[in-house]
Amino acid sequence: MKSQDDILAIVAALKSAYPEAICSLDYQKDYELLFSTRLAAQCTDERVNQVTPTLFSRFPTLEALAQADVSEVEEIIHSTGFFRAKARDIVAASQMLLEVYGGKVPSTMEELLKLPGVGRKTANLILGDIFHAPGAVVADTHCIRISGRLGLTDGTKEPPKVEQQLRAQLPPEESNDFCHRLVLHGRAVCMARKPDCANCTLRPWCDFYQPQD
DNA sequence: ATCCCGAGGG
DNA sequence: CCCTCTGGAT
For binding [4Fe-4S] cluster, which residues are annotated in this chain's numbering (predicted)? Predict the structure, then answer.
């Protein structure tokens, strides 16, 4: 594992390389981030952003989404993949948000996980970006891969373990932005197939760095 | 063939 | 732990 100094150095290097820790999903309302994140399962954010303007203008309110014809939602979101489950979840979650939570996105992990189609990744993103909860760790595919390569985790790919191990090391007020920056770094430099180690600002602390790449 | 800011079920 | 759900890009 890393020393606390290494952790802080990695946090600082990422902050310097990616000054704004932004979510690349486009959204206006809280529930739009929730559903955009559901759509982002095994799909690029870029493609999600191509369908959500159509989805959220065709069904501009939570009430409209709750009453939407699932097959029409399926058509709109088809290109994001897993479209049957995603469409079913979006309509069902809209109904639950209205009926159980008064139309407001809940602010606790426990309640978020009760919503259909909301798992730990989506819940943590909401907690971090909407409610600014300290200690939120979004263990998505980029976070899991890069944390493993760096040696911040023991190599597990199980999201709850990655969450736990990162949360134990990161300053709580930094964890959410840190995860956003890992995503940006995962796209630009530390790609899954062919990581660009030569141009990586994190290589002084990375267990994975191999000069021949 | 592998990957993309996953979730749910066995 | 495993598997399935699905389309698009590389």
Answer: 190, 197, 200, 206
